[in-house]
Design goal:
sequence-specific DNA binding; globular; five-stranded antiparallel beta sheet; transcription regulation; HhH_base_excis_C; Arc Repressor Mutant, subunit A; alpha+beta; alkylated DNA binding; transcription
Length: 363
């Protein structure tokens, strides 16, 4: 499984060139690079590589005698403009210590992913902005090469790289009648790298501040997260997997309660873990957000706000909306929830982006 990145599209992905750097600057066999890129056949990889670059992979390695590197460096393009500082600020305020580092220039995180071989692959990623190239500069530790297609898909999702900002801007231009520059061309929808992590964070964030939810998530990570050797100060763990939560013996509240997570939310987290591990819930590519929202609403402790927030960030649903959200209500005061819901009808199918605009307007 290569998370929706077919082998032809993967190799033909414009400026991304995901196969070049591992061939140039690592000692990995070409067949290992091909398999990591999602190809089932070395012959097909060689043929497409030759067609794309007019050069055989082995010839490239002979021509480019670079020093071996411990990371892969890729450029992921986007449609300009891109409000990078706004995206980085959003992620910074929610970064979980141990998992994520966000500073003025970059986003970095520890990663643990299960590959097609069933093995766990751990490492780190770091993302910076290349505005002159209309791209993000992605560094990936070489240890994640076997799951590189998954990493690429998740980074694209996290940073909303497939978005065409112009239709969004046109659809939400009317928001500027509410306040000057509420809708700015290039605003992106912050997604997620780990859908279970995002779902849990939504549950932890019910009726408390962003900072308080971040503290609870940090405690979960320090007690039950997956240890990751990154060599990067501040990056030490990945978020616990659904399976890790389900492995906790006894009542879930006996494990999460001492961390400050109340009983109802602890039980909701366990229900989410069970639903995702069994496939009852699907946040992956191809899933229909509206259907998953309805499934979420059947789980204990999940109401409309939580279900919509999960769909917005874990599934990149462009039309999620939460009329009762504190930030939305504050930005649109003194309107009632009903009036807000009616107002937002004009923002379909971009209400998730409208929500980000309303939150941004508060800062």
């Amino acid at each position: 499984m290569n998370w929706g990145v077919g082998d032809f599209q993967f190799l033909k992905s414009g400026s991304d060139e995901p196969c070049i750097q591992p061939i140039e600057s690592s000692h990995l066999a070409v067949v290992d690079v091909a398999l990591a890129a999602g190809f089932g056949s070395l012959r097909r990889f060689n043929a497409l590589f030759q067609a794309r670059y007019r050069l055989a992979p082995t010839a490239l390695r002979r021509r480019k005698r670079a020093e071996p590197s411990s990371q892969i460096r890729l450029k992921l393009s986007y449609r300009p403009p891109y409000r990078w500082e706004t995206m980085l600020g959003f992620l910074a305020s929610r970064a979980i210590p141990g998992i994520e580092i966000v500073d003025a220039q970059r986003y970095a995180r520890a990663v643990a992913l299960t590959g097609t071989d069933g093995g766990m692959h751990t490492g780190w990623i770091s993302v910076r902005h290349l505005p002159a190239r209309h791209a993000l500069d992605l560094e990936v530790s070489l240890t994640l090469l076997p799951v590189l297609p998954i990493v690429l898909a998740r980074v694209r999702h996290l940073f909303d790289l497939t978005c065409d900002p112009h239709p969004v801007h046109e659809g939400l231009a009317g928001m500027n009648t509410l306040a000057e520059s509420m809708q700015i061309l290039g605003t992106r929808l912050p997604g997620s790298f780990d859908p279970f992590e995002m779902a849990v964070r939504a549950v932890l964030g019910q009726q408390i501040t962003v900072g308080a939810a971040r503290t609870l998530a940090s405690r979960m990570v320090s007690h039950y997260g997956i240890a990751v050797e990154t060599g990067v100060p501040g990056l030490s763990h990945a978020f616990p997997s659904p399976e890790r939560i389900l492995e906790l013996n006894g009542d879930i509240e006996t494990h999460l309660g001492p961390l400050g997570i109340i009983r109802t939310r602890a039980r909701t987290i366990r229900a989410l873990a069970h639903a995702l591990s069994t496939g009852e819930l699907d946040f992956g590519p191809g899933a229909i957000a509206e259907d998953e929202v309805q499934k979420l609403l059947t789980l204990p402790g999940i109401g409309p706000w939580t279900a919509q927030y999960i769909a917005m960030r874990a599934m990149a649903w462009t039309d999620a909306f939460m009329p009762t959200d504190f930030g939305v209500k504050k930005a649109l005061a003194p309107r009632t929830a009903g009036q807000i819901r009616e107002l937002a009808q004009a923002w379909q199918p971009w209400r998730s982006y409208a929500t980000i605009n309303l939150w941004n307007a508060l800062h």
